[in-house]
Amino acid sequence: MAALETPQTFDPWDPAFLADPYPAYEELRARGRVHYFEPTKQWLVPHHADVSALLRDRRLGRTYQHRFTHEEFGHSAPPPEHEPFHVLNDHGMLDLEPPDHTRIRRLVSKAFTPRTVERLKPYVDELAGKLVTRLVAAGGGDLLTDIAEPLPVSVIAEMLGIPESDRAPLRPWSADICGMYEMNPSQETAAKAVRASEEFTEYLLGLIGARRKEPGDDLISGLIEAYEDGERLTEQEMISTCVLLLNAGHEATVNATVNGWWALFRNPGQLAALRADHSLVPTAVEELMRYDTPLQLFERWVLDDVEIDGTTIPRGSEIAMLFGSANHDPAVFTAPKELDLSRADNPHISFSAGIHYCIGAPLARLELTASLRALLAQAPTLTLTAEPVRKPAFVIRGLEGLSVAL
């Protein structure tokens, strides 16, 4: 069967689509299981069952360079001027496949244990409480800059052992690097990502060197010591891992926080129910992650031909799995358009699946829970004061800000 043409309503550069992509996803799902999108030369997959299966399918990979050269795969090498970004990105476990992915994740897991995350809970709860107290004392502010950003950035920086005096550039570096994950990034975006990659790498080289001389009780010291079967992380792998943990460790949490509160303000009945019953917080966190997914799309290279609903997707192609669409699939979620904070059966895929399942998911849940509880407890009359502006980005979905008052 030939691939269906992509509906015209799917336009990831259209502000109207960015404001609300979910009707376009509904049309995609109705028209088929796979669609070729010419502007990015990707195959879009919108259904939950297909996305979930493909995330676990070893015929797909985040990279192809463990099996093919660029030429063998039918691609051109990245421009030489982009090398600092690709060196940084390509040595992190998110963009590696076995055996390198297996080795690095195993070593990182030794330092990034459930006990490490659980030990952070008092710090996270205290920090969330202090940030909300400050917001309340000011009578309101911007939920993005006052709560959503400082909480996860401070937490991951604390884990890594980055001194408070050095933390100001972390969020800008992360934002510039993550710009490269959008569809068809511009040359300006690439230049920013390269500069941020160089600056971040230089900073971490110095910090890793200092921790080698004087180890501490932090994740960087743990990564230096991580050892198994005669293997350690290389210096570049450590740098790439730290950057990945920072970027993935707060981008999703920042955007899930503001997307979530924007959803709550648009659904006053659900917000009232949550304010009346704080025991809903655990299911609310999962539902807010599903309802307006912070990472809308995740890509895989086709390493061996795959078939979806009679359409053969050949080796060398790129598949774009639409997380936002999968999380609204009525085949899996009852009344998916509705925000239901008591939704118990909620197999959303906002943290991915398979070998690339987000290693920081427990930390993200801890942070989202802490900020939500603190805001419900200290700011029970929180209201929106201005219509938020959606960021002009599709893959990483967020807001420019969220103005609130008490």
Strand order of the largest sheet: 1-2-3-9-6-4
Note the main sheet: 6 strands, mixed
* Radius of gyration from CA coordinates: 21 Å
Strand percentage? 5-15%
Outline, from the CA principal axes? globular
Summarize it.
This protein is of the alpha+beta class and about 400 residues long.
Structure description:
By secondary structure, the protein is α+β, with helices and mostly antiparallel strands. 50% of the residues lie in helices and 9% in strands. It has a single domain (4-405), classed as Cytochrome P450 (Cytochrome p450, Orthogonal Bundle). The protein contains 16 helices and eleven strands. The strands form three sheets. The chain has a six-stranded mixed sheet, sandwiched between helices. Strands 5-11-10 form a three-stranded antiparallel sheet.
Sequence-ordered SSE layout with sheet pairings:
Blueprint: E1 4-5, H1 15-19, H2 22-31, E2 35-37, E3 42-45, H3 48-55, E4 60-61, H4 83-90, H5 100-111, H6 114-137, E5 140-142, H7 143-148, H8 150-160, H9 170-178, H10 187-213, H11 219-225, H12 235-266, H13 268-276, H14 281-291, E6 297-302, E7 306-308, E8 311-313, E9 318-322, H15 323-326, H16 361-378, E10 383-384, E11 403-405
Parallel strand pairs: 1-2, 3-9
Antiparallel strand pairs: 2-3, 4-6, 5-11, 6-9, 7-8, 10-11
Helix pairs in contact: 4-10, 4-12, 5-11, 6-8, 6-16, 8-12, 9-10, 9-12, 10-12, 12-14, 12-16, 14-16
Key terms for this structure?
single chain; 406 residues; alpha+beta; Cytochrome p450; 6-stranded mixed β-sheet; 3-stranded antiparallel β-sheet; 16 helices; 11 strands; 50% helix
